[in-house]
Write a structure and sequence with these properties.
The chain has about 190 residues and is mainly beta. It has one helix and 13 strands. The chain has one helix at about 40-45; strands at about 10, 20-25, 25-30, 30-35, 55-60, 65-70, 80-85, 85-95, 105-110, 115-120, 125-130, 135-140, 150. The strands form three sheets. The protein has a six-stranded antiparallel β-sheet with strand order 1-2-10-7-12-5, with helices on one face.
Length: about 190
């Protein structure tokens, strides 16, 4: 297969396994078209033989921060995330013990206008902040949601240094997301 035939481009981020996916978008006077996901292209370009089993969607208003969430093994999840409408700052945090980037995060703007996606492998915490009036956020998971395996890191852990691009007075959190532990206070369930 010729590389020009792929429906997407994969960009490395500097954190092993964390990948930016840019689909090819075809625009004309009618609007646009793109393949939001091609299992064949994804597997060839990333070298990962994943099977996504669940698609999730959320809609949130400006100022909402969701995260930083993860599921512990054996229910850990890889995710492929994207924004259908609006704009978010998407954040993935490396929780893999032994990783040279343990405790580092990537913050990436995803929007309905830039079509970018982020592939987040197992071993990362994930969250996002809504930067537009509202945002529709979709993600694929390679494992089913298991409430008993939920884990999380405080969104405002000072050691992480995440700039959520929101004024403090605009931040909206769930009660649950207000009370997560700091990274230094957990034993990570992920090994590299």
């Amino acid at each position: 297969m010729n590389h020009k035939e792929f429906a997407m481009k994969v960009i490395e981020t500097g954190i092993e396994g964390l990948l930016i996916i840019e689909p090819k978008v075809f625009k004309d006077g009618r609007g646009h078209f793109f393949e939001a996901f091609s299992e064949r292209d994804f597997q060839i370009l990333t070298g990962r033989n994943l099977h996504f089993v669940q698609d999730n969607e959320s809609e949130s208003c400006y100022g909402v921060i969701r995260g930083l969430h993860f599921q512990q093994p054996p229910y850990a999840q890889s995710k492929l995330v994207r924004v259908v409408k609006g704009k978010v700052l998407d954040v993935a945090l490396d929780l893999r013990e032994g990783s040279p980037t343990f405790g580092r995060h990537l913050a990436l703007e995803l929007s309905g206008d830039n079509y970018r996606q982020l592939f987040i492998p197992q071993g990362f915490a994930h969250g996002f902040a809504v930067l537009s009036d509202s945002a529709v956020f979709q993600y694929k998971c390679d494992n089913y949601y298991a409430p008993s395996s939920e884990g999380a890191i405080a969104w405002n852990d000072p050691d992480l240094g995440i700039d959520w691009k929101l004024p403090p007075e605009s931040i909206i959190l769930s009660d649950k997301d207000r009370n997560h532990p700091l990274l230094k206070d957990i034993i990570t369930p992920f090994k590299r």
